[in-house]
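User:
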Amino acid sequence: MQQVENKLAAPTAEFKVVEFDAGGEKVKLSPNIIKRYLVSGGGNVTDQEITMFLNLCRYQHLNPFLREAYLIKFGTSPATMVTGKDVFTKRAKRNKMFKGFEAGVIVIDKDGKAVNRTGTFKMPDDVLSGGWAKVYIDGFSVPIEMTVQLDEYIGRKGNGEVNSQWQKKPATMIRKVALVQALREAFPEDFQGLYSQEEFVEAQDVALDATPVPTQEVGNLPNQTQDIPEQSADEPQQYDPLA
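Assistant: Predicted structure:
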């Protein structure tokens, strides 16, 4: 009799599933799914970090199985929650107020002057210094403009060396930082709590790709939903890299 009761008992909180809509599809997440499939970096995530990540995905309608959101954890350092590279531009295009953007890099030319270059192109004598972006909004007389400094965001290894991604394509990376920040300032409701990989130094050591996460086990989990507690105002929130 005891064995029967155990089999019929409700699954623990670790296996209970939260269901929400993301891009017109139903997404099912549980703490166990997150731990097994959705943590990058090899660190041991805490229950609080899992709750924060689940809530971020649910409230911002992100599908982590399509690589729209990542939970990155190194050792005992605080976890980083990163948004996939295509989420920002796709959401901006869906906003009726969005009227396009411009973005590029800031360089110091051979004459020592700061110059805005469109895109990521620079002359051989140019020294890369930062990135810039402008987002145009319907009804606004001037665009939302953002400039960022390369030294503040360049990704480095634990020993202080610039990591491979920033070594190979620093112009691409710093341009993306400027664009993401301009979009977030232009449309705070669409991008609240969303940060790109390029904004976090620690996240640059993790290869984030577009390969979907295996979901066979997800379909076999008990079909039970659970209200995951919202983050308390007294608890640490996801940190802002601009602070």
